[in-house]
Amino acid sequence: MISVKLYMLLIKASLRSRMQYKFNFFFSTAMASCVHICEFLMVALVMMRFGNIKGWTLYEVCYLYGVMMISRAIYRTLASDVHHLEKYLVSGDLDALLIRPVPVLLALMTQNSQVLIAEIGQGLILLYIAIQALLASGQIGWLVIPLTGLMIISGAIILFAIGLATAAAGFWLTRIESLQNMTEDASQTAARYPLSLYPKWLQGALLLVVPVGFVNYIPTLYVLRHQGGIGMLLGTAAVAAVSLWLAIRFWKLGLSRYQSTGS
After folding, report:
1. What is the reported pTM?
2. What span, in angstroms and rounded, lies between the C-alpha atoms of 226 and 160?
3. What angle do CA 231, 192, 143 make, to 5 degrees?
4. Which of 48, 66, 94, 222 has its CA 20 to 30 A from that of 113?
């Protein structure tokens, strides 16, 4: 509880400092909204033309997209600078976090925090549209709402674990931007759509190597399509717990090997 309270205090302080530049906040929010709207509209236009892709309807893809967008936004809101560890390693700024009277990971997670309003808002809109349409068609029931909430929470944990493990690799590699492009950016973009669209080797990579498929695709098979039974959700929760445990262990190992740049 002490760690949680400390984390909340640090997050509030970071957000207050970010809000000193209100124009920058609103401008970046507007630009992020435009980017995400354009990305989804391109997919929506294609699906509106052809009806469905390998049996997946527009509303089902909309649901996948919304869950991934919100899970990612929560991760980046609550642990923003985990994704930017490289700059701390290169500049030597991690040394300043090491001498603080708080755990290094906690200090890093609360640096430069920002609420990704655009991503969260758009994700909620996409989920609302998808759930309303699927409820009207009788494909799902109202139980989908609490199940979706659980999916988003477990999804945020999985994405945080992937981001933390990738960041921890920086203690050996230092330059990890290219690695992050694969494990975070590219994989999350791919998982916004049904994994059945991809070849088997890529599906395996997105489930076993970088488990982003468990953020939305696997639980969605049960929630929307009633496939696989409740084990799909339990498996997702287990993947989230194991991924987080492994990522924290890897982070601690990497931190123990950290050598300052001396700058």
Report:
1. 0.86
2. 27
3. 45
4. 66
pLDDT at residue 27 tops 70: no
Q: If you count them, how many residues does the chain have? A: 263
Backbone angles phi, psi at 10, to 5 degrees: -70, -40
Contacts of 68 (CB under 8 A, 6+ apart): 123, 155, 188, 191, 192, 212, 215, 216
Band (78; pLDDT cuts 50, 70, 90)? confident
Q: What percent of the chain is predicted at pLDDT more than 90?
A: 49
In angstroms, the CA 134 to CA 140 distance is 6
Cα separation, 172 vs 187, in Å, equals: 22
Instruction: Please check the confidence at residue 170 and state whether its pLDDT lies above 80.
Output: yes
**Integer CA distances (angstroms), 171 to 88, 107, 254, in order:** 11, 17, 5
pLDDT at 145 exceeding the cut of 60: yes
C-alpha pair distances (Å), 38 with each of 31, 42, 241:
11, 6, 34
